[in-house]
Design a protein that fits this description.
The complex is a heterodimer of chains A (378) and B (327). Chain A is α+β, with helices and mostly antiparallel strands and 378 residues long. Chain A contains 14 helices and four strands. In chain B, strand 1 and strand 2 form a beta hairpin. Classes of the chains: A alpha+beta (378), B mainly alpha (327).
Chain lengths: 378, 327
């Protein structure tokens, strides 16, 4: 499928011709586009990462602000139809708070007389957009007081804002962790596959051992060793490195098997005979030819990292308050009695499930698209 | 065959050796050794620190010697069945862990059995009725199971049971059986509690198995020998179960190896949420209080269990699949 092939067939301007001259990436993109679930998942993931990047703008409230008068307030439903009929501008009902005569707890109910229309691009707490511009514009809010579309937690903090802020930490930990394990995987897997022999055997044994240790106990052991006095940012990187210390094995295996199969290919042999340096053969001839597979496996290994962070933080061994991640939020929902009374505390789970599912579908689609023996064409 | 088994057993030795190094490293990672922690703890609670006992312990575990000597001292007593001393519980580790490990094995084995049965039934159905409503439903539920963290599934199940059935689930035994000696009544009681952890831990593994079985069986069903058998009028069920299903079942055995670490992993975190009397909660507490001998022994023994499980599955695979070569 090179230019030479097509030049032998004169006058080809049909679809076939396009396929013959298309680059590998174009072919992959075509196959990928036919995978409808993967396309949807891709769009969902772009939205999720944009949410992570612009969480300050999207979040109506400061995620760390306590509202002592509105502790465990239920979610306010976004409404279009009220007592006065349909309105194009969405609105919410305010809260009516009273003390429960028996438990003396403050109970918040929805007050249907208190209609609060949602306004867009309102001013609220100030923040730096993308760390660059100082601003206080938020996507939406209400005129007076605050809006809690997903309710509040035990300190009266806005769940929606916390989930949106958590998106940044939880999804980026997957990306950074996979980045580290990719580096480890390519280096170690590459050495193993390229040189073979004793080195290969030793590395393969090591990978087997690492894979045979149950991950969660191992993660727990490693993260319990992070000193408790570390600042949040360092804990974040510590957890990322712990996750990738175990995550690299899968990628190393993929890289190794690709190296072994490519080592015997003619184009590598040609480069070798031509006197190309080893490092150039690896970086310029071998790596590009299996990059697509690597991308697919990387995508499939991100959800494991996201779930890993969530599990560790949930157990109290991972990230800790005041850092906001999905796992930290789920920690609030540890107790069944609390969950039974305030089920909206379980909402972060929905975000985790959607993200993990999206990565799985996207990875499946990429894997099929990267397979040169899969069906192609348009 | 005997040679193969022997070789596999010999290969286990370096594996276990590496695992022991990793476990030992985890025990050594937190700053300070456990005796300093122990002394701080004793002093904080206003108790007299018995210097003689501390010195005796220091000598016994060789804490004053270089790290590699410490490793050998530890591994030597580990092999003799002395797993060290738990400072939180003030008891030798091996008095604490065996019952919990046994229950972990019980829960894991039950989970594996559950996922085999469910995956077999759903997988065969999905493959014989591809692209039907049932097939799509199974795929959908499978994906959700794959993507939901175990502990959240546990919480949601507990929440549903608590708020809709008014039943408090969790634990492995009813209150009256917790401290009771083992009896048939206690086993029966455990079986009644077992289903929630089994579902929670098993879901993601089952989903994977269903997908593999479905794919394999679909491939197999399109092969000429199946078509021939159908054309010759062999009853449908017989065609299905005589060869294709048997072939497609191979992943059930071969995946035991890599699904075991996942199951034990899932068991650990699920048992924390459901407060099962298995290894999970004790391991978590040991790690939080830096009771490192207890934690290290758990990680080591759980890993060894996994390695043994993998070995058994490899041998089973060699026995059941005549295409496997022993070299």
């Amino acid at each position: 499928m090179t230019h030479d092939d097509t030049q032998n067939i004169p006058g080809q301007e049909s679809k076939d011709h396009e396929i013959y001259v298309a680059s590998q990436w174009t072919l992959m993109w075509r196959r990928f586009r036919k995978h409808r679930m993967a396309m949807v998942a891709g769009v969902v993931l772009i939205c999720i990462y944009l949410t992570g990047a612009f969480c300050e703008f999207l979040a109506p409230n400061d995620p760390n602000e306590h509202n002592t008068r509105l502790v465990y307030a239920p979610p306010q439903r976004l409404r279009f139809v009220g007592e006065e009929g349909f309105s194009l501008r969405p609105f919410v009902y305010g809260y009516k708070s009273q003390r429960d005569p028996v438990t003396l707890q403050r109970v918040h109910t929805i007050n249907k007389e208190d209609v609060r229309p949602i306004r867009f691009f309102v001013r609220g707490h100030s923040y730096r957009l993308l760390g660059l511009f100082e601003t206080d514009i938020h996507l939406f809010g209400i005129d007076e007081g605050k809006v809690f579309l997903l309710g509040t937690d035990r300190l009266g903090r806005d769940m929606l804002s916390r989930i949106l802020y958590g998106t940044r930490i939880s999804t980026s930990i997957g990306l950074i962790g996979v980045f580290f394990s990719l580096i480890l995987g390519i280096i170690i897997g590459g050495i193993s596959g390229y040189y073979g022999g004793v080195v290969d055997t030793v590395i393969q044994r090591l990978i087997e051992v690492l894979r045979s240790i149950p991950t969660i106990p191992l993660w727990m052991g490693l993260s319990a060793a992070l000193p408790p006095h570390w600042p949040p940012l360092r804990v974040y990187f510590g957890i990322t490195i712990i996750l990738s210390l175990i995550g690299w094995t899968g990628l190393a295996r993929v890289v190794r098997s690709k190296f072994i199969s490519l080592r015997e290919e003619e184009f590598v042999m040609a480069a070798k005979i031509g006197g190309t340096k080893e490092i150039r053969i690896i970086t310029h001839h071998m790596v590009p030819s299996f990059m697509s597979h690597i991308i697919a496996s990387v995508t499939l290994s991100i959800p494991g990292m996201i779930l890993g962070e969530t599990s560790l933080s949930f157990l109290g061994l991972g990230l800790r308050s005041p850092v906001i991640s999905w796992g930290v939020l789920m920690q609030e929902a540890q107790n069944v009695q609390t969950v039974a009374l305030y089920p909206w505390l379980l909402l972060p789970t929905v975000f985790v499930v959607v993200t993990v599912l999206a990565f799985n579908f996207l990875g499946d689609g990429l894997r099929d698209a990267a397979d040169p023996y899969g069906s192609w064409g348009g | 065959m005997t040679g193969y088994v022997l070789r596999r057993c010999l290969l286990m030795i370096p594996t276990v050796f590496l695992i022991s190094i990793i476990s030992f490293a985890i025990m050594q990672l937190p700053p300070g050794d456990f005796l300093t922690n122990y002394m701080i703890q004793l002093e904080a609670s206003g108790q007299e620190v018995d210097q003689a006992m501390i010195e005796a312990l220091r000598m016994r575990y060789g804490l004053d010697r270089p790290i590699y000597v410490q490793y050998f001292v530890w591994i030597k007593s580990f092999l003799r069945g002395d797993f060290g001393f738990s400072f939180e519980w003030n008891r030798p580790v091996n008095q604490l862990i065996w019952e919990r490990l046994a229950l972990t094995v019980a829960v894991t084995a039950a989970t594996m059995l559950f996922s085999w049965v469910v995956a077999f039934l759903i997988g065969v159905y999905s493959a014989t009725h591809p692209y039907s409503v049932g097939d799509y439903m199974a795929t959908f539920v499978g994906f959700i199971g794959l993507a939901t963290p175990n502990f959240m599934l546990a919480l949601v199940l507990m929440w549903v049971a608590y708020s809709y059935f008014g039943q408090s689930v969790g634990g492995l035994f009813s209150a009256e059986f917790i401290d009771a000696p083992w009896s048939w009544a206690k086993v029966w009681d455990m079986l009644k509690h077992l289903w929630i952890p089994v579902i929670v831990i098993g879901t993601s593994g089952t989903a994977g198995l269903i997908r593999t079985l479905r794919a394999n069986l679909l491939d197999e069903l399109n092969k000429p020998y199946v078509v021939t058998a159908v054309a010759k009028g062999v009853p449908k069920m017989r065609v299905l179960f005589k060869y294709p299903v048997r072939l497609a079942l191979i992943p059930f055995i071969s995946t035991v190896g890599w699904s075991l670490p996942g199951l034990i992993s899932g068991e650990t975190i699920t048992s924390v949420v459901l407060s099962l009397p298995t290894t999970g909660p004790l391991l978590l507490r040991a790690l939080q209080s830096q009771d490192m001998y207890l934690a290290g022994s758990f990680i080591m023994l759980l890993s060894i269990l996994t390695v043994i499980g993998t070995l058994i599955s490899d041998i089973l695979l060699a026995v059941t699949d005549p295409r496997i070569r022993f070299d």
